[in-house]
Amino acid sequence: MREGIRTAILLCGDLESASALREWSPDDLAAVHVVPGLCRRMDAIPAIAQDASCERLVIGLCREDHSPAELQSQVRKAGLDALGVEVLSLRGCRPKRARILLAAAVARARAFTGSRPENVKLYLSSKISRRALFKLSLTEYRAAPSIDHGKCASDIGCRVCAELCPQGALKWSDGVMDYNKDICEPCGICVTACPRGAVINPACTPAQMEAQTQALLSEPYEGPRGILFICQRTQAPDIDEGWMPVKLPCVGMVTPIWLLAPLLMGAGSVGVLTCGEMCPARQGQVVREKVEYCRELLRSLGAPDDLVVLDPEGAPRHGRPAIIRRNPFTHDARADVILTLAESLGGGSFALEHPLSPLGLVEIQQDVCTACGMCARSCPTGALALEEDDDGVSLSFEAASCVACAQCLPRCPEGERNAISLRRAVDTRAVAGGRLLLRQEKTLRCASCGSQIAPVGMMRRLEEILGDEYAQVMPLLRRYCVDCRVMVGGTVSPR
Amino acid sequence: MVKLEVEGLARLRRSLYRFFAACFLYPEEARLKALREVLEAVREDELSPFAFHSAWAQLRKVVGEGLSQAELEKRYVRLFSVAHGGPMCPPHESYYVVQPGRAAATTSVELEREYRRMGLAMSLETRTLPDHVSVELEAMAFLCGKEAEAWASRSLARASEVLETEHSFMRTHLGTWFPTFSRVLMRRGPGFYAAVAAAADAFIKHDLDLLGALRKEVATHA
After folding, report:
1. DSSP secondary structure, A31-93, as one string
2. Is B213 within 8 Å of A123 when comparing Cβ atoms?
3. Do the interacting molecules here have an ipTM over 0.90?
C-alpha cells in the first residue's frame, strides 16, 4: 500500500451507519465526511474533495441505482482519476462491518497508481428507439487493460492472453499482441493469465488486491472471516457478515493461486460468487472447475476442502495467523504460495497432477531432443533456459518458474516425436529443488573461424533428415559454420 | 445518467479538433490569444462527463500559469521545425508510419485522395503538407461538422455514413500515429506542448472509443 496518501471518505447521510461513522477514521490521513443526500446529489463531491485536499476518494452510498457516469463526472471535477475511486454500497451494513469495508476500500484506493487514456472504456446506453438515439446516455467508463510492451513476451511467440480471451479482443500477429478495445469486455482474465504480468488493469492490480485483502483481514472484527471474490455485476449477497467482499470485473480472472492466497493472509475461508447465467464471459463453469481444483489440492494436503467454496451459504471458518510476506497476487508468486501453503497446512511434500495446475513440469526425451533451444527461447518466464559456453550448450528447467503455459510445446521442432512434454502438476519437491539440468550437449566448432556451428545432437538429426542423398555434404556442414562455407547446387565447399 | 445530445456532441468534438489543430501551428500572437480564449470559454460542465477531462484540466492549468510567446516560438521551432539533424518531433504522419518499401510521399498522396473524397482540397497557398498533424486534425473537425449537420437534419443514414468516414480516417491515419507522436513530444520535457500532446492524445483515444460506440448504436437503430 502507498502510505501517506490523503483520502476522503464520503458517506451518504441517509445511511443508517452514517452517524456512527462520523467520528471514525482508519488512520490520520483519511477523514470521513457525511454528506446529506449524497446518493441524490453527487454535485457535492467536488467541493468536499477539494476542501479535503484529498488524492483518493472512497464513497459509501445507500442506493444501488446511482448514476456511475454522473459520479465519475463529479469526481473528475474534483481533479481526481475516476477509475481510482472506490464506491461501496453500504445499505443495511452495520457500523462494525462498514468500518472494515471502508478501511479496505481506502487501502485499495491508495494502491491505485493512476490510469492512462488507453485504460478507459466508454459505455453508451443502448435503448432501442430512434428518438433515444439523438439523446444518448453516457452510462459510465470502466477500466480496460493495456499491455506493457516492454514486458510482454509476444515477441518470443507467447500468446497465453490471446488463447484465453473470451471475446477474442487479443490477437497475436508477427510477434506483436494486438488489443482491440472495441470488442473487449474488460474481464481481467488476460491480466491474471499473463506469465509476465504485462497486462495491466489499473483498477484491479495485484497491489490493490493485496492491500484490500490485507485490510479486510486485519481490521478488528469478532468472529471468523472469509474473503469473497465477487463479480462487479452482482449485488451484495445476503450471506453471513464474516464474508468480506473483494469486487472484480469478472470472477473469471480469479486463479487457483488467488483462491488459495488469502488463506495465507489470515482468511478462514475463501469464496467466489459468480454472476451465474448473466456472465458475458461465460466463466461460470471455469470458476467452478478452479474451485474444485483448489479443493482437491487442499485434500491432498490433508486440509479440509471447504476452505475454498463456490457461492458460499454458511459462515466462513476461523482463520490462522497471516504467514506470507510477499504479495501473493502477483504473476510470479505461484510457487511461493504453493510452498507456503504446503508448509503451513500439510507440513510435508505433495504432488498433484491436474489440467488447471498453476505450475508445470517440463520433461524432455534425451534421445530425441536436439538441444536446439527453441523451447527455452519461447519460454515467457525463463523456467526453461539455455546456456552456452565453450564446451557446449545446457538446457535447464526450474519448476518454481514454470506456469504450465505450454508455449514451449508447439515451438519444438521435434514436437511430433515427443521430444518435449509438459505435465500440469504441482510437485513441491520439484518446486523446492531449484534449477535442474535437463540436457547437455557438446557443440561443433568451425574449423576455420572457431565459432559454434550447432549442438552435436542437432547435427545428428539433420543428418538423419537429409539422408544418404546429402551424405557427401555432411562432413562440410559439420566442419564449417554458415559464414565459412559456400553452398552451390547441393554441394558445400569452404569459402 | 449523463445525457449526450448527439448533435451538440459532434459540434463539441469539432471545436476540440480545431483547437488542437491550432495548437500545433506556429504560435503567432493572434493564434495564442484565440487558444487562451477557447480554454477559458469551455465550461467545466461541458467536458467533465468525459474521461479526457483531466488531461484538458492539466492543459488549462499550464496555460493559466502563463505562456511567453517568445519562449513558445523558440520551443516550436526546436520541436517541430529545425534542430540539429532535423526536428525533434516531426509533426508528420509519414515519419511515424514506417513500412518497408513505402515512400514517405505515399502517405501524403493517400491523404490527399482521402481529403478529396471528403470534399476537401489542400490550399495552394499553404505550405503545410497533407500529413501534418494540424491538417489531419482539421480534417476530423470538418467531418465532425458534417456529422453535426446530419444529426441536425435527423438523417440517420447520412450520420452513419459520416461516422464510418471518421472511424476509417482515425483507424488508418490520425489514430495510428498520434499516440507515438504525443509520446515523443511528452518525452521532450514539460510545458505547453507536452500538455497539449497529453490532452490531444487522451481526446483522440477517447474519440476512437466514442466513434466505435456510436457506430454500434447507429447500426442498432438503422
Report:
1. EEEEETTTTT-GGGHHHHHHHTT-SEEEEEES-S---HHHHHHHHHHTT--GGG-EEEE-TT-
2. yes
3. no
